[in-house]
Amino acid sequence: MTSKMYQESSSAPSVIADQLSQDEECYRELGAYARADNPAFVTTIARGSSCYACYYGAYMITARLGVPVIPLSPSIVTLYQAPLKMQNSLALGVSQSGRSPDIVAVLEACSKAGAKTAAFVNVEDSPMAKLADIFCPLRSGPEFSVAATKTFIAGMTALARFVGHWGQDQALLDGLKSLPDVLEKAQKVNLNPIVELFHDKDCALVLGRGSSWSIALEAALKLKETCSLQAEAFSSAEVKHGPRALVGPGYPVLIFAPRGQAQKDIIATAKEMREFGASVLLITTAEAEGADLILPEAPDPWLDPLVMIQTFHLAVEQLARSRGMNPDHPPHLDKVTLTV
Question: What is the mean pLDDT of residues 73-81?
Answer without folding.
Answer: 95
